[in-house]
Specification:
The protein is α/β, with parallel strands linked by helices. The chain is built from four helices and seven strands, in the order H-E-E-E-E-E-H-E-H-E-H. The chain has one domain: Ribonuclease H-like superfamily/Ribonuclease H (Nucleotidyltransferase, domain 5). Strands 5-4-1-6-7 form a five-stranded mixed sheet, with helices on both faces. The chain has a two-stranded antiparallel sheet with strand order 2-3. The model has no long low-confidence stretch (mean pLDDT about 90).
Length: about 160
């Protein structure tokens, strides 16, 4: 492991170790692309000794992206489904998250991955400069190390959502 990897890992673990602070809540953020599929296969007839089965055919109906913010210390979740995962989508999600769910917080400690859109610079694509700066001041990013996204508790939430 490199020093950079270890630093990011220890920084994220340190965030999890800090006590709950409603003025600076810990938020884990991630996004996941999803394919919209429709099962078009029929149910196959049952026969003695064989359970109900489905034909494997499906039809693709596009894709979307699920944005998820998880507050591990309270168990709160905020989820949005969007068409894409652009810098504009990220900035809009963060602005909505803070305005709707954390208006009283001074800032949020934000655990997230290093995707190129996950930066305060994305806010400037959506908001006037003064508002973008104010939003950036309320987000304190802590990046999970590359190949260490398992440190982000939002990943665990996505794993739970994907189980059937």
């Amino acid at each position: 492991m490199t020093g950079d990897y270890l630093w990011h890992m220890e920084d994220v673990l340190h965030q999890y170790h800090l006590p709950y602070d409603p003025q600076h809540p810990l938020i884990c953020f991630d996004e996941r692309p999803c394919f919209l599929i429709e099962e078009v296969g029929a149910i196959l007839a049952m026969s003695p000794g064989k359970a109900k089965r489905y034909h494997y055919e499906y039809q693709k109906n596009g894709s979307c992206c699920v944005f998820l913010a998880f507050e591990p210390q309270t168990g709160s979740r905020y989820v949005e489904v969007r068409d894409r995962r652009t810098a504009v989508d990220y900035a809009d999600f963060m602005q909505t998250l803070l305005a709707r769910h954390y208006p009283q917080a001074e800032s949020i400690r934000l655990v997230q991955d290093n995707l190129n859109t996950h930066t305060p610079g994305s806010f400037y694509g959506v908001l006037p400069p003064a508002e973008a700066f104010a939003l950036a001041q309320r987000c304190d990013p802590h990046y999970a190390p590359k190949k260490g996204s398992w440190l982000n508790m939002a990943e665990i939430e996505f794993a739970a959502l994907s189980k059937q």
